[in-house]
Amino acid sequence: MKPSHGQYLVSIDLGTTNTVLAYAAPGSRDIELFAIEQLTAPGEVGAATLLPSARYHPAMGELAAGDLQLPWREADVAGVQEVVVGRLARRLGAQVPGRMVASAKSWLSHPGVDRTAPILPWGAGHDVAQVSPVAASASYLAHLRGAWNTRFPAHPLERQQIVLTIPASFDEGARALTLEAARLAGLADVRLLEEPQAALYDWLYRHRDTLAADLHDTRLVLVADVGGGTTDFSLVRVDIEHGEPVLTRIGVGNHLILGGDNMDLALAHLAESRLPAQQATAEAAPARLTAGRLAQLTERCRGAKEELLAQDAPAQVNVTLLGSGSKLIGGSRTVTLTKQDVEGIVVDGFFPLNAEQEGARRGRGAIVEFGLPYASDAAVTRHLVSFLRQHQSAAHAALGSEEDSLPVPDTLLLNGGVFRADALARRLEATLDGWRGAPVKVLHNDNPDVAVARGGVAYTLARHGFAPAIEGGSPRSYWLLLDGDKAPGVARRGVCILPRGTQPGREVRLTDRTFALRVGRPVRFHLVSTVADAGERAGDVGELDPADFIALPPIAMVLQLAGSAARKEVPVQLAVALSEVGTLEVHCVEAGRADGQRWLLEFQLRGQEEEGAEVQEEAPPPRFADAVERIERIFGGRAQQVDVKEVRQLRGQLEQLLGSRERWATPLLRRLFDALMERAKGRRRSPEHERVWLNLAGFCLRPGFGHPLDDWRIGQLWALFESGVQYQKERQVRAEWWTLWRRVAGGLDKDAQLRLLDDFAFNLQASGEERSRRPLTLVEGAEEDMLRLGAALERIPSAYKAEIGNWMLGQIVALPAAGPKFDAKAAAAFTRYLWALGRVGARQPFHGSAHEVAPKATVEEWLQAILQLDWKKIEPAGFAAAHLARRTGDRSRDIDDTLRAEIVRRLTSVGAPPTWAAMVRDVVELDHASEQRMFGEALPPGLKLIG
To answer: Least packed by Cβ within 10 Å: which of 116, 357, 538, 824?
Structure first.
């Protein structure tokens, strides 16, 4: 963005807790804060510097139409009819559980969910509208746009120079989604700036006239930015040249979902344990709060924390949790939090002095709530030690200190709302003093809430030559992985495609390395980034420590040669740049031609590829070509004289060439699927051709995801669905058809799964008259095939799962559980229906999103019914109950604790495998046997499903 006469210089801090806008008027170098108009009470509008990053979705009739009126009119970018944004949203959210969207920024960096799907408020009831993290973030930016354009109608916000700040640790996926949120808000032209850098820019600008004196004895600045949702560290080296300080950023930290939200939640857990029990009435809430009520309590604890950490803090504060419905006041409960409580949990728990200089502890965190993957170690000071060790070479060089000690910066700048609490600021300062053995110099941040927004304007002024600048370029290096799949923890080989420090806008081309690009066919690239200081150069091949690198979203696509649909290999080189807006751009450039074609490689941000094991390209087995030749003989374009026996023997012949199919690794399976898909027309030659093709295709593409380009393969396969099978009358062909779709269901999107659900319902529930009008292409399905298919449809809405599960439970209750009618046939029916019910109501889905699991209250009803069965006689009842009651750590999904205890007791009393009770009692991963039984068959070697 070049300077333009008449443009405002704008900076937006889109924070986890608050959103702030700062600006400088055209021709001015004075940085001002924008007073954001927002609802402060129903029907009342006020202006404030901070816009709470919160949305509230009121119930129908809760607020009158006039109560939501703002000085501007604009539809909600998320499409919700009635919504409150800002201060009133936070106030209402503290009073009414389950209707407030908060911490959307933390969700933007959570790759384990579809961040473009409507999942917030997390765990909300079906009467509450939900929005995606991207849309929620966009709504805060749209609110700013409306407020700005109302105040400055001649200077629309979308036409100004805008900087949007993000955590330094945001990966490429989170950065791209932040830009998408800005685009949805009508702000298409923005530049990204890292928040710790912005905070330092603010300090530099405020001290620009005395900078040489203020920094004369500084060699290394640590910027510690702890906000509501994230912790960010950055290191900046200070050199003195010609009597003036020159600043260069030399290190940033990895992403940590660790901040004020975690502290509030820890206090909420303490408060929950102290809440007085309600009277035992039919309306009484369970002893453990619901997710919505816990969110409400957490919001109350936020205020208590701020009071108890203030300099003039009282000895204690009462926290009141209001009742619900007609008992809003009468049903309220109050608990006391003391100053000692907060000092013990927040100060000592999150900021221990850590005199031993212990690094961050690995493992599962004690706090797992609201679906977010909070940092496993809550101690900020232990994460700080790990960060300093990661950058020790560059830090020691800046300090001129010895390599065998922890490099402790001599200067500290604190930022983020957490450090408004003087006790926390003093604790981190004391920690660094202890590590150094001498006092650390503290750069005064006069207002951590707004420093980042002001610093974004100072950054733009510096780019125009009007303020001190920070050098540094890209904070991380980017690598293309070269080696095959490795066990966890094993070093990986990669080639550096963009070194640390590369300046934005400068393209780096790997002219010494040429790759063969397969056009017209699927190609994939595995990129990683690392903040570690390796002294790398573009084109260097090196070993990467798995503890240091972060896998980027996959790049997987089919590239076409201009003007040609031919499939061939084209020599290309990689050209990589950090764009001017702050995102990574990767191109393949045709080698050897001045006018060679360029292909932009785009990251996949919406899929779930990252949930599967990362599987690298590897050489096929020696006899793979022979295997493809056998497939060609059976299904190839030129019909060959092949008898039925040879078709039946294809699987055995492939195993003779490639080994037992249970040991076929995912890359080999996908190669075989591609060979089968190319010859899909050949499946129609005979019933045996069709049966064998369906069997092998489903086996080779299972579970439908987990390997690059599986989305593309699923798209090819799904194109065959509506045509059905050729040999409808053959029972085994019909069975293999449904087995195929059950095996690959994990790769199908919601719409495709709903389409399968239509056929599921028809086959199991259609009346005789309806069956007489069966569509010609609708494939008949046996009960067992349909149950296994229906259970695999994890992306359908939770209300549909409740309906399916209720029908299954009705079938279970109707089965004879004792007496002479309880025979082998009845036992087999129990097994089928209980397995399917356990999968439909599972608390931890295999491939679906956690926000679409069956409703908790419905699953609790199913468990009560299952408890009526004799688990010793009907063994599948215990297995189903274990999955229905499996603990996730997310109380919006987890069942009531009393019911959980009863399930554990029953599992123990019938001698069920210990792992079943363990998954109900604690948050654990499934063992191989349970995973295989629940999924229905073994997964490909090297591929593990992680919820």
So the answer is: 824
